[in-house]
């Protein structure tokens, strides 16, 4: 093939040439995390996208994340190494169905998890991520009814934390749904000292066993600060790359999925490869385009989130 021998070096020089920044999510493969300028959770990545002075953003994550970066930067080139890198949560919430759902609850304010399409964002009042969802819902006046979309697991968790009733859209993440409560309990018996860290996209039976629940960044910070030296990680195992780098003497065990598959890895996130990162920078494509009317409507709820975080 025409790929350079030294992909790391080639990516570094293309980055300079284009004045590009690489923003990566923790669920990306280790090599991609290692060449990123910034690695973070969805909120951190949005904040970086909102403040970057780069001309080009290469987003090593999934489509809704790159879309968010483009909504914040309509005049910049936003590259996504593989346009097929979608998300089951975003897919679970088609705009026409959601518009009907919204029309059935006309007095409700719409809070949408950032894991949704630009069209859904354009139909929303406020966007949230797993790191600020509780904080944002707490800022809504108690008499104001709320629709929360599209993740029912995060929605349930937020309802529990805030004591607020919310109307939930029935979506879920195919990765966080695969964790087996039974296997986590068995693992805990084998590793009684281990702390269980879980993402709020997990289902309630798994969350019940967690010592700590949070966004990817929050889980990483917790693991670093904890006195524990052993952890069971109930989220996509890509995060373990950074945990292990930051705490080489601690041990991180991926929570097992129900079947003997590697379906705790996000098949969308893992479509991105170092080769595709290189090719995207070299060819300045594939890139994200959003119709201006949707971009303008989707920007407001994202800005509200950034103000309320
Ligand atoms: P956070 O990194 O914001 O916790 O999101 C997790 C996730 O599933 C992203 O798709
Ligand atoms: Fe979507 Fe789940 Fe993959 Fe995150 S891990 S991108 S929520 S499918």
UniProtKB/TrEMBL annotation:
- What's the protein called, per UniProt? Quinolinate synthase
Q: Which residues constitute the signal peptide according to the record?
A: none
Q: Which residues are listed for iminosuccinate binding in this entry?
A: 25, 42, 113-115, 130, 199-201, 216
Source organism, top-level taxon: Bacteria
The cofactor binding remark recorded in the entry reads:
Binds 1 [4Fe-4S] cluster per subunit.
Q: What does this protein do?
A: Catalyzes the condensation of iminoaspartate with dihydroxyacetone phosphate to form quinolinate.
Task: Fetch the InterPro entries from UniProt.
Answer: NadA, NadA_sf, Quinolinate_synth_type2
Q: What is its EC number?
A: 2.5.1.72
What family classification does the UniProt entry report for this protein?
Belongs to the quinolinate synthase family. Type 2 subfamily.
């Amino acid at each position: 093939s025409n790929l350079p021998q030294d992909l790391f070096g080639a990516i570094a020089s293309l980055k300079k040439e284009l004045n590009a920044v690489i923003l990566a999510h923790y669920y990306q493969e280790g090599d991609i995390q290692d060449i990123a300028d910034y690695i973070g959770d969805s909120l951190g990545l949005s904040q970086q996208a909102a403040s970057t002075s780069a001309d080009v953003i290469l987003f090593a994550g999934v489509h809704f994340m790159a879309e968010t970066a483009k909504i914040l930067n309509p005049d910049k080139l936003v590259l996504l190494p593989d346009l097929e890198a979608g998300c089951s949560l975003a897919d679970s919430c088609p705009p026409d169905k959601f518009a009907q759902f919204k029309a059935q609850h006309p007095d409700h304010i719409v809070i949408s998890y950032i894991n949704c399409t630009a069209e859904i964002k354009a139909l929303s009042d406020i966007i949230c991520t797993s790191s600020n969802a509780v904080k944002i819902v707490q800022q809504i006046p108690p008499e104001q009814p709320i629709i929360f979309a599209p993740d029912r697991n995060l929605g349930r968790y937020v309802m529990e934390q805030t004591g607020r009733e919310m109307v939930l859209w029935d979506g879920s993440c195919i990765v966080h749904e695969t964790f087996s409560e039974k296997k986590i309990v068995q693992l805990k018996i084998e590793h009684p000292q281990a702390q269980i860290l879980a993402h709020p996209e997990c289902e309630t039976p798994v969350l019940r066993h967690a010592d700590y629940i949070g966004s990817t960044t929050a889980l990483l910070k917790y693991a670093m600060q904890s006195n524990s030296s052993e952890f069971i990680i109930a989220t996509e195992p890509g995060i373990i790359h950074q945990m292990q780098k930051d705490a080489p003497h601690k041990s991180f065990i991926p929570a097992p999925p129900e079947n003997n598959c590697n379906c705790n890895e996000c098949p969308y996130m893992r479509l991105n490869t170092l080769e595709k990162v290189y090719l995207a920078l070299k060819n300045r494509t594939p890139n994200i385009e959003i119709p201006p009317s949707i971009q303008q409507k989707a920007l407001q709820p994202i800005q509200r989130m950034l103000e309320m975080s």
